[in-house]
Amino acid sequence: MILIIASSQDPAGMNIADNMLEHHDFERIGDNIFEYTKKNAILNIISERSIYADYIEKKFDDVEANFFITRHSSEKGVHTLTVHTPGNYNGAMYGGVEGKICISNPIAQKIALQRMFKERDQYGLDYEVSLEATHHGPITSVPSTFFEVGSKMEQWKDKKAGEVVASATIEALRFNDMDYPKAIGVGGGHYPQRLSEIVKTTDWAVGHVIPKYAFPIDENRASELFNMNNGGETVIFDWKGTPNRTHYRDLFESLGYKTLKTKDLTN
Description:
The structure is a single chain. The protein is α/β, with parallel strands linked by helices. The protein folds into two domains: 2-177, 3-Layer(aba) Sandwich (Aminopeptidase), CATH 3.40.630.50; 182-265, 3-Layer(aba) Sandwich (Rossmann fold), CATH 3.40.50. Helices cover 29% and strands 25% of the residues. The strands form two sheets. It has an eight-stranded mixed sheet. The protein has a four-stranded parallel sheet with strand order 10-9-11-12, sandwiched between helices. β6, α2 (106-123) and β7 form a beta-alpha-beta unit. α1 (11-23) crosses α4 (159-172) and α2 (106-123) runs antiparallel to α4.
């Protein structure tokens, strides 16, 4: 079963959830719990903030993946539709556990991102679409993905943006039915545009993304990224956006992983 989580404290999460209930086939089966009739999935509206909902999957039986539908915040206020994996490379200022990352779901991220790009263009929305680097809580024990609208209240309550993220989340429920080569993404900023373009235009699915601000990393972190990526043996580098890049290419290759550069995968 796939667990979709929205927080009643989160205006974007509730916007996305309302769009799910309006446009997709859900039936109420309990207090703040709705079942999706076309797939083995439920929507749970929780009272706490999503980033603090540690191990929420343990409240239900046989959860194979968590989908968090939430707001994205940014001081710059850029209009964004994003997907990412939760986890903390260093501190834990916003939930989770310091230094711990969750299991990623690269294929769910790919399906959702491609859908966001498609519907953004279809509806002519003034939003940037992007992967985000792995960041913030909660800590979980199953593959987990955040599907977000950002970055201020106007966007959080934008019904059309909520509809697009709801559609992308529902589409991502098909992740078990799809097969793509999986990779981790290395380098670039918090919004890795080159990696996002790879996910949009090629067969590659990217799970964990470690940005340049999270460096340096050691062998343990390099190995952990793959152990928690839910598949894949390839690193895709944003080469120009990686500090000390030759060193890190050699590090990953010494551990037996393949390496590619984003420029190798684009025309």
